[in-house]
Design brief:
Transcription Regulator spoIIAA, homodimer
Amino acid sequence: MDVHRVCLPPKQTVFQVLKHRLSEIFFPDDPLHRFKNQSPFTKLVLGLQYFFPIFQWGPNYNLKLLKSDIISGLTIASLAIPQGISYAKLANLPPIIGLYSSFVPPLIYAVLGSSRHLAVGPVSIASLVMGSMLGESVSNTEEPILFLKLALTATLFAGIFQASLGLLRLGFIIDFLSKATLVGFMAGAAIIVSLQQLKGLLGIVHFTGKMQIIPVMSSVFKHTNEWSWQTIIMGLSFLAFLLTTRHISTRKPKLFWVSAAAPLTSVILSTIIVFAFRAHIHGISTIGHLQKGINPPSANMLYLHGPYLGLAIKTGIITGILSLTEGIAVGRTFASLRNYQVDGNKEMMAIGLMNMAGSCASCYVTTGSFSRSAVNFNAGAQTAVSNIVMAATVLVTLLFLMPLFTYTPNVILGAIIITAVIGLIDYRAAYRLWCVDKLDFFACMSAFFGVLFLSVQMGLAIAVGVSMFKILLHVTRPNTVVLGNIPGTQIFQNLSRYQVASRVPSFLILGIESPVYFANSAYLQERILRWVREEEDRIRESNESPLKCVVLDMSAVTAIDTSGIEAIRELRKTLEKRLIQFVLVNPVGEVMEKLHRSRILESFKLNGLYLTVGEAISDISSLFKAQP
Amino acid sequence: MDVHRVCLPPKQTVFQVLKHRLSEIFFPDDPLHRFKNQSPFTKLVLGLQYFFPIFQWGPNYNLKLLKSDIISGLTIASLAIPQGISYAKLANLPPIIGLYSSFVPPLIYAVLGSSRHLAVGPVSIASLVMGSMLGESVSNTEEPILFLKLALTATLFAGIFQASLGLLRLGFIIDFLSKATLVGFMAGAAIIVSLQQLKGLLGIVHFTGKMQIIPVMSSVFKHTNEWSWQTIIMGLSFLAFLLTTRHISTRKPKLFWVSAAAPLTSVILSTIIVFAFRAHIHGISTIGHLQKGINPPSANMLYLHGPYLGLAIKTGIITGILSLTEGIAVGRTFASLRNYQVDGNKEMMAIGLMNMAGSCASCYVTTGSFSRSAVNFNAGAQTAVSNIVMAATVLVTLLFLMPLFTYTPNVILGAIIITAVIGLIDYRAAYRLWCVDKLDFFACMSAFFGVLFLSVQMGLAIAVGVSMFKILLHVTRPNTVVLGNIPGTQIFQNLSRYQVASRVPSFLILGIESPVYFANSAYLQERILRWVREEEDRIRESNESPLKCVVLDMSAVTAIDTSGIEAIRELRKTLEKRLIQFVLVNPVGEVMEKLHRSRILESFKLNGLYLTVGEAISDISSLFKAQP
C-alpha cells in the first residue's frame, strides 16, 4: 500500500519564525497590502487617505450626500444636546462639559475616523464609570475644580491609552471583553444608572454617592420626606412620553425621528412649563445659569503630578477601554450593515487622538454612541459630515441658546438618561446565551451581579476573569473521543456521535480535541490510560481480539509544549511495557516541528507516524498479519 | 455520489451534560472503577486499601523486602539527619525542628502514602520560601517564639490546603506550575539558597535578612572584615569533598552511597576537628546545645488569631503548593520508573494529613524530597518501610545522640545545603526548552530572574502569569492554513507544508487550528477575509477560474462560543454578498451542538455542511457543473 509521509513544515530560522509570529500578532490584516506595487505618488495619496479617511471620500462628495448628511446631522444634534447635558451630570460634571464634548470631538473624528455612521459624543457607560471611579476619592460637590481637573486628565490618559493601543496594534486587547460579558455589564450598568436617576425623578436632595444597588435603594427610602410630588408627576409623565416614543421607533424603524425628536421636545416643553409656572411650582430643581461661548482651552487644567495622578490614570485606562469597546463595536456593526470595513487599530488611533485633543478643549471622554449612531444610520447619514453638521448645531447652541436652559428641570435629564440606557438591557441576548452556551451565560450573569452589588470595576474584572477561566478550563479538561470507522470509507469519526461508525478490532483510535499543554498533559496522560483500561475491560468481557495498537489522532492538537511532549513520551513508554504499539497521526505543522526538534520521534519505531488514521490502520494491520 | 451527513451528538439534558463535565473535571481517573461489581466485603477491603495503601502491600511483606528497606532506610537517614538540621536553619528555625520533621511525617506517610520510593522530610525550596515569607514581617532573631509559632501555623494551613485540594479533587491546580516554570524557579531558588550560605561559609555575623541577589551580594562584600579564614578553609574543603562525592555518584549511579554517606561523614569529621582543636580555633560558630528527646506536642503553639494570621495562611498556601508540586512530581517520576501508578489526589491527602499532624508535633512543612528519594530508589527501597526505618534512626538520634552535635560547625551545614541544591540548577533542561519551545524558555527565564532579582513569590507569580499568557496568546492568534489536495487521495493538507498538495480550482480550503472564542473571533474573521482577498488577487494574476466557494475545515476547532458563532454568521453574510459559497466541514460534537442550537445552520443553504473536505468538494463541484 502507498503510505504518505508526514512532512515537516519548511525550515525557518528563529528570526523568520519570530517575524511571522509578530506579523500575525500585530498585522493580521496586512494593512500595507494596498501599497504594494504602486508608484511613489500613489503611495503618498494612499498614505494620506490611510491616515485621514476624509481624503478618501472627500473628493467624491456631492450635494445629494450633503442633503442626507444635513438631515441626519440635525437629527442627532437634537438628541446630542439633551443627552450631552444629561451624561455630563451622570459623570458628576457641570452640564456644559457635555455640550463642549459634543462639539470638538465630532469635528476631529470627521477628519480621522473611518466609520461613516458613528455619531460621536459622550456616552452613558463611560460617563458613569468616570463619575463613579473619581467620586470614590474626590467629592464633586466639595472640590468641583479638582474633580473637573481629574476628569479632564483621565480623558487625556484615556486618549493616550487608546491611541497607543492603535499605534502598537494591540487592538486585540479589547477582544477580551467578550460579547457575553458586555451584555451583562451593560445591563447592570443600565440598572445602576437608572437607579441613580431616582434622585432627580423623586426630587431627593440628600442622596448617596455610592453606586451599588443596596445603598442607592436605602437612600431612596430613607429620604421619603424629601420626595417632591411636583417633580415626581413631571418626571413620570415625561418618562412615559419618552418611553412611548422609543417603543414606537423600535417597532417601526422608519419612524426613527419620533424617538429622536422626543428628548429635545421634552426639554423644550418642560422648560416652558417650569418657566410659565415658576411662581407657583416649588421644589423642582433646574439646571440654572449656563455660560455662553465655545469650549475654553483646558490644557492648564490637566493634573499631571500630585496624589491623585494614579487615580486619573486608572480611570483613564478603564474608561478608555470601555469607550473604545463601544466605539469599535458600533462602528463594526454599521460597517457590516453597509458592507464596508472598519480598521480597528485605525479607529483606536482616531478615537484616542480625539480624546487627547478633547482633554485640552474642556471635553471629557467621548466615543461613538450606540443609540445616536443608530439614529444617524436610520436618518440616512452617508459620511462623517453628519458629525460636522451636528457639531455646528451644538456650536450655535453654545453661542446663542444657553440662556434657554436656565429653567430646564433636572428631572427631565433623568428621564432622558433612563430612556437612553434602558435599551442596554438586552434580556433577549442573555436568553440566547443561556440556550447556546451555559458558561457564557454564567460570565454574563457574573458581570451583571458584580456591577449591581459590588462595583462597576469589580463587575468588569469578574467578567473578564470568568471569560479567561473559561478558556483555561477548556484547555485544562479537553475532550478526548474514541473514533471508529464509517464502513466503506476512510472516514474515522466519534463512536458516540456516529451510530454508523464501528470499532476496528485490535485498535483503539483516540482523538484529542485540544492543544497538549502543561495545564492538561497530566490529565491527558491519565485519561488516555483510562481509555486503554476501559477498552481492555470491554474486550475481556466480549472476548474480542486483544488490543494491539493505540492510534492517537492529533489533527485537533493545535499546539504542544514541552510538558505535552513529555506526556507523549511517557505514554509511549507505558504502552510499550504493556506490549501495545503507540502511533501518532497527522500532527499539525507546529506540533510536528516540536516533536521533531525534541527528538521524540526517534523513540517511536519505524511505524510510529502516519498522515491519516486510515493509512495507519491498514499499514499496521498488514504488519500484524506478516508477524502474527 | 454518496455524501455522509454530519451528526449531532446524542441529546443530553442540562443535568447530564453538567454531570459529565463535572465528572471529567473532578474524576478523570474514575477512582471508583475498581469498586464496580464487587461484593460488600471486597468493597470494604478495597476501601481500606484505597485510604491506607499500607493494607495493600502490607500482607505480602516479607523478609527480603525488609532487608532492602532497612539498607535504603539507613542510607536516607544518614542523609536526612544533616539535611534536616540544615534545612531548618534555611527556614530560620531551630535546627532540632528539622530533626523532629524527619521523624513524625515519614511515619504518617508510610501509612497513607501510595508511593513506594518517596523519602519524606523537610525540603530546600519550601524551607527557603517559608523562611523568606515569614521573615519579611517577623524577625526570627528578635521574636524566635513568634516566628516558630507562625511556622507551625503555616504548616497547619499548608496541610489543610493540601488535604482539601486532594479531597475536593482540585489536584489539577498544581498542573499550572508547568515544568518549564519549575526549571527556572528551582534554579533561581537554588542560587538564592547557595548565596545565603555564604553567610556560614565566610563566617559573616551581620548578614542581610533579604533574599534577592543584590542585597545579599552587597552584604557579603560590605562585611569583608568579618570573614573568618578558619571558617572559609574548613567550609571550602568540605564543600570540595561533598561536590566530588556528588560528582562520583552522578557519574556512576551504582556508587550512590558515596554521596549518600558524605554529608554524615562531613558532619562527624568536622565535629571531631572542631572538638579536638576547640582551644585553638576561634571564630567558627557551632550549632551548640540541642535538647534530647522526641517531638514535644505543639498544638498549643498554633497561632490562630492575631495580626499575623493572614501571613501564616498565605505562607501555608504557597509553601503547601510548592511542596505538593515537588512531592507529586517525585512520586510520579519513580512510579513511572517502576511502572506503578501514583494517584495525585490521594497523595495530596496523604501529604496534607502528614503536615496537619506534623504541625501539632513540632514539625514544619515536609514533603517528598527529590534528592533523598533518588538515593532511596538507588539504594533499593521497595516499600514505605524505608521511611519507617529512617524515622527510627532519627528517633535514636533524637533520644541519644543530640549532645554529639554541640560542636558541629555551622559552616558544614552551609556546604551540605549548597551540595543538595546545586542539583536543582538544570541548565540542560533549560537548553532543551530553548531548542523545542522558545516561549517555554521565556517562561523559564522569567521565573529564574524573577526569583533572583524580585522575590521568590514574585518569581513564581510571574512564571505562572507567563504560562497563562502563552495559552491565551495561542487562543488569541491561532493558526489558519490553506489546504490543498494530495493528488489521487481524499487527503487535504496544508499547502505550505506538503509540496505534493495542490489547490483545487475555484475553491479556497481553509483550516482553523484553534477554538473560536471571543478572544479570537474578530481576528479570525479578518484573517479569513484576508485569505479570500489574497486568493482572489492570486487568481486575477494567474488568470485561473474565479473563486466560487470557501470551505472551512473545522476539524481542529475544538470549541466555539457565542462570539465565535457570530463571527461565522458574519463571514457567511460577507461572502454571500460577494457571491461566494461558504461551507463548513466536520465540526466536532460540541461545536456542532452549539451551531445547531444557535440555529445558524438554517441560514446556510442546503449544501452548507459536510463531513469531509473531499465530499464537500466533489458534491459542490457537481452542483457547479449542473448550474454553470
